[in-house]
Amino acid sequence: MSEFFGLKSSSSATPSDMAMRKEAMMQNVRSEMALANAQELINKAGEKCYIKCVTKPSTSLSGSEETCLSHCLERYIEAFNVVSRSYSARIAQEKDSL
Q1: 68: Cβ–Cβ under 8 A, 6 or more apart, which residues?
Q2: What CA–CA distance (Å, rounded) separates 40 from 46?
Q3: DSSP H or E run through 71
Q4: Contact criterion met (CB below 8 Å) for 77 and 41
Q5: CA dist 36 to 32, 39, 43, 92, 94, Å?
Q6: Residue 54 CB neighbours (<10 A)
Q7: How many helices (H) and strands (E) does the chain have?
Q8: pTM of the predicted protein model
């Protein structure tokens, strides 16, 4: 299993090598989570705004549907950003209190 993570053997790696690999892996996980969150945001916003704004689906959007979708997506992203900032601040606060 150690070969899977790019380690030849655990006895040959120095503590600083292990720390660097751990940090790189954690950064990779953070990036993957951010990407997954962004994809979920787009999917959920698209679903909810479409249901709200497109009452009679057709081959094109009306002007009012376009406006509604635009406003809906803006609000959804604003709300997501507020929640994200609050969550990040709380995590930082809890980390500092440890």
Answers
A1: 49, 52, 53
A2: 10
A3: helix 63-97
A4: yes
A5: 6, 5, 11, 21, 24
A6: 15
A7: 2, 0
A8: 0.60
SS3 1: coil
pLDDT tens for residues 53-75? 998 899 999 999 999 999 999 99
Rounded Cα distance, 1 and 10, in Å: 10
Residue type, position 50, single letter: Y
Q: What is the pLDDT of residues 8-57, one digit of tens each?
A: 555 567 888 888 999 999 999 988 998 898 898 889 989 999 999 998 89
Cβ neighbours of 50 (radius 10 Å): 14
The pLDDT assigned to 92 comes to 86
Instruction: Give the SS3 label for residue 27.
Output: helix
10 Å CB burial of residue 7 (0-12, 13-18, 19+) is: middle
**Structure tokens of 36?**
């997954």
At 39, which amino acid appears? Answer: Q
